[in-house]
Specification:
The chain is of the alpha+beta class. The protein has 3 domains: about 90 residues, no CATH class; about 60 residues; about 45 residues. Strands 1-2-3-4-5 form a 5-stranded antiparallel sheet, with helices on one face. Strand 2 and strand 3 form a beta hairpin. Helix 2 crosses helix 3, helix 2 packs antiparallel against helix 5 and helix 3 runs antiparallel to helix 4. The longest helix is centred in the middle third of the chain and has 25 residues.
């Protein structure tokens, strides 16, 4: 999260925070606040999106935490970034949704259709066929239960490993699909926050 000073803190009372951004009154709610973490949800003039600050390392708590003035400033910065992003989405909605569509396509390709994904699927199929073949031998009495357990043990271990999804660099795919929005408010929030908000826009269209 980039530190943003283009705001004025009007007031913080309980969980509610009010700031002024470029002449606009922006209201939010602090949904989480402890020494190491702080999270803010925007209420007005937009809603349906929140962001959490990065966690302060334990050693850093000796000189810095989110319970005092530093937390107020971070909450205001988060709220300002949320407001600027929501406004940016209103102005560039179609291009952002096009980038989201491209992102989802690339993620699906990496998970299911890339050479790595196809190889993994083939290995799963082969392992499953071997398991079924051994089970058939047991049912037909060609092997006893001890032989059966000995032969399926490594295959079960392989199958467990093969059922795990391939490791995909989601951040790299996001950067590739949203690179036109670098140095814009879309780059000030976490990838998960940006994607979740855009997904909600699609549902309400």
């Amino acid at each position: 999260m980039t530190q943003d000073k283009d705001y004025t803190i009007i007031g913080i009372e309980g969980d509610q925070i009010d700031i002024m951004v470029e002449g606009m009154s922006v209201i939010g709610r602090i949904t989480l606040r402890d020494r190491r973490n702080i999270s803010v949800e925007i209420i007005s003039p937009f809603s349906g999106i929140s962001e959490q600050s990065g966690c302060i390392p334990l050693l850093g708590l000796q000189v810095h935490n989110f319970l005092g003035k530093a937390g107020d400033e971070r909450a205001a910065s988060l709220l300002c970034a949320l407001y600027r992003f929501c406004r940016f989405v209103d102005e560039h909605k179609e291009r952002l949704l096009e980038a989201l569509h491209n992102y989802k396509y690339k993620v699906a390709y990496a998970k299911h259709f890339s050479p790595e994904a196809r190889e993994l699927a083939q290995r799963r199929t082969t392992t499953l066929e071997n398991l079924l073949a051994i089970r058939k031998e047991l049912k037909e009495g060609r092997i006893d239960n001890i032989q059966y357990q000995r032969r399926i043990r490594p295959l079960n271990k392989d199958m467990k490993l093969l059922t795990e999804e391939i490791d995909i660099d989601m951040d790299a795919i996001f950067d590739e699909c949203f690179n036109h929005f670098w140095k814009t408010p879309a780059w000030e929030l976490s990838r998960e926050t940006v994607l979740a908000y855009l997904e909600e826009i699609i549902k309400t269209k």
